[in-house]
Every structure is written in structure tokens, then in C-alpha cells.
Write a structure and sequence with these properties.
The chain is an alpha+beta fold. The longest helix is centred in the first third of the chain and has 14 residues. It has 6 helices and 2 strands. It is elongated. The chain has a two-stranded antiparallel ribbon.
């Protein structure tokens, strides 16, 4: 099965975890994402700077976008981040086994997918 580039390499675990936190919780600051990740067993020792770097890299790639700002307790404005449609499609494509889709999907679904790919190219 082919992997999507955002879920390949060293950052794959972090990217997937950040996507799931944002998908479940909605718009969050980087600090909030870091706190939610630290509640998971695999990410107890993850550093804030690692999450900050990953979220900013995902924003640069178009998977995460700024959705507003929120005042923090110290009076600063912190950016809120949310997933883009590209991120949701990446999550779905990561879960789908393309061989199973081709074998079991109705013809109309396959034709819709073909049309989308043809429009893209």
C-alpha cells in the first residue's frame, strides 16, 4: 500500500498524532496541542519545541491553517490552528486500502474518483 508523504519518515508519528488531536478537539493553540499529546503514553516526553516545529512545518505544507487568535493568561495573543481539507483527505486516504476500494467500491464511486483525478491532472 502506498503511503502519503505526510505520513512517511521520522515525523510521521508526530504528524499523525497532531492530526488526530486537531480532528477531535477542533482549533487549538500549539501549547494546547502539546498538552493533549502529552496525555498519550507514546508522547509523554515530547518537547514543546518539537510540537511547535511540526505544527509550523504542517502549516507551511498546507495541512494546518491559522483559524484565529486567543488571549493567553499572560496577555499575549496565541494563534489557533485547525486542519485543512487537505489534512482530512490525507487522514482518509491513509485509512483506505486502495486495493480493497477498487475491488469492493460500486462503479459510480470509482467513476467519481476517476473524474476527480482527471480534473486534477
Amino acid at each position: 500500500m502506498a503511503r502519503i508523504s505526510v505520513f512517511k519518515g521520522r515525523e510521521a508519528r508526530f504528524n499523525k498524532a497532531i492530526f488526530w488531536v486537531l480532528a477531535q478537539q477542533g482549533s487549538l493553540t500549539i501549547y494546547d496541542i502539546w498538552r493533549k499529546l502529552r496525555t498519550q503514553r507514546d508522547f509523554i516526553y515530547i518537547g514543546y519545541n518539537t510540537v511547535n516545529r511540526r505544527v509550523r512545518a504542517l502549516e507551511e505544507c498546507g495541512y494546518v491553517e491559522k483559524s484565529g487568535e486567543r488571549k493567553t493568561k499572560t496577555g499575549f495573543a496565541a494563534r489557533l490552528y485547525q486542519l485543512t481539507a487537505r489534512a482530512y483527505v490525507a487522514i482518509l486516504l491513509d485509512k483506505i486500502n486502495l486495493d480493497d476500494f477498487i475491488e469492493k467500491a460500486p462503479d459510480t464511486s470509482i467513476l467519481h474518483v476517476m473524474a476527480a483525478f482527471i480534473l486534477q491532472s
